[in-house]
Amino acid sequence: MAKRKRPSKGSVGGQTPKDADESNVVVLDAVRYSDEPIAKKTKWINKQRVLVLATRGITYRERHFMNNLKQLLPHCK
Predict the structure, then answer these.
(1) Domain layout of the chain by residue ranges
(2) CA distances (Å), 54 to each of 60, 63, 71, 77, in order?
(3) Widest CA span in the chain
């Protein structure tokens, strides 16, 4: 088997150090306008929930009362 050739110290992945620096350059906009709109935050949403429970021997009147309570609570489950 033949011996491998060692890469030269100046090359990185087959590129010279000068080429490697040019590939990592980030191009920015020339001008930044102060009139650009600021990114607005979205409205905060309450993700907490309330669980409404009842006992086993509930009557129709109590069941309807619980349904009315659920309708009043926007975050009820």
Answers:
(1) 45-77
(2) 12, 8, 16, 13
(3) 93
